[in-house]
Amino acid sequence: MAWCKKSHRKDPKFKNLKFSEEFFGEPERWKCAGCAYDQGFNDAKAGLPNNPRLNELDQSQASAVRHRSPIEGYNMGYNDGLKCNSHDFI
């Protein structure tokens, strides 16, 4: 899998996510929480079910997303996408 080079790696909103302890010692620990957020947001906007696909995500060890839970990132993005669909997104 490729390494994420997107600017969301440094977005401070991801520092509030839980650490990916459920994936300690596993490759999923290095999945980019920012890419997971984008995946969740896009899924919600498209009306797709909440279904994180970690195998599709790039890896990242950078800044705000380092060892942050990709599941939490996906869920945050999904919830924001739902809010956007309901016009409650700021």
Topology:
Blueprint: H1 33-45, H2 70-85
Helix pairs in contact: 1-2
Brief sketch in words of this structure:
By secondary structure, the protein is mainly α. The protein has helices at residues 33-45, 70-85.
Number of helices: 2
Report the average pLDDT across residues. Answer: 86
Beta strands, count: 0
Shape: globular
Structural class: mainly alpha
The topology string of helices and strands comes to HH
Q: Could you tell me the strand content as a percent range?
A: under 5%
Largest sheet: none
Low-pLDDT windows of residues: none
Q: Helicity range of the residues?
A: 25-40%
Instruction: Give the CA-CA distance, first to last residue.
Output: 33 Å
Whole-number radius of gyration? 12 Å
Q: What do you see in this structure?
A:
32% of the residues lie in helices and 0% in strands. It is built from 2 helices and no strands. It has helices spanning 33-45, 70-85.
Key terms for this structure?
90 residues, mainly alpha, 0% strand
